Amino acid sequence: QVQLVESGGGLVQPGVSLRLSCAAFGFGFDYYAIGWFLHALGKEREGVCWISSRVGSTDYADSVKGRFTISRDNAKNTVYLQMNSLKPEDTAVYYCAAAGPMSFARSGYRCYSRSAYDYWGQGTQVTVSS
């Protein structure tokens, strides 16, 4: 059964760090790019960052550059999102998603296009508040 399972969310104060994990099951993880998206209350779901399948190339939205780091451990079928210097505006449900090579190509290699992704996790809540 194909699954993406996020974990690591929680309630934290501004300025602290969290590390989210995305564990993959049931598909060829090595061949899939992984993206993190956030969905804040009352807003559209938006891309946060992305990591390619093999080389490990990364990309970040401007809002998180310098604060967030995405990484992957293919031996563990897991992607991590290290979130530092958290701000109240980072509050959202965070989702990971997996993009297979065909879907990614059909999307025009747009790493923040939802159409590029084949599988989605259920999300994990991150709340940043004092």
Question: How would you sum up this structure, described in words?
Answer:
Helix content is 5%, strand content 45%. It is built from 1 helix and 11 strands, in the order E-E-E-E-E-E-E-E-E-H-E-E. It has one helix spanning 101-106, and strands at residues 3-7, 10-12, 18-25, 33-39, 46-51, 58-60, 68-73, 78-83, 92-99, 119-120, 124-128. Strands 2, 4, 5, 6, 9, 10 and 11 form a 7-stranded mixed β-sheet that branches. A 4-stranded antiparallel β-sheet has the order 1-3-8-7, with no helix packed on it. The chain is globular, with a radius of gyration of 14 Å. 35% of the residues are buried.
Short account of what is shown:
With about 130 residues, the chain is mainly beta. It has one helix at about 100-105, and strands at about 5, 10, 20-25, 35-40, 45-50, 60, 70-75, 80-85, 90-100, 120, 125-130.
- The radius of gyration over CA amounts to 14 Å
Structural class: mainly beta
Percent of residues in helical segments? under 10%
Shape: globular
- Work out the strand percent: over 45%
Number of helices: 1
Poorly predicted ranges: none
Instruction: Let me know the number of strands.
Output: 11
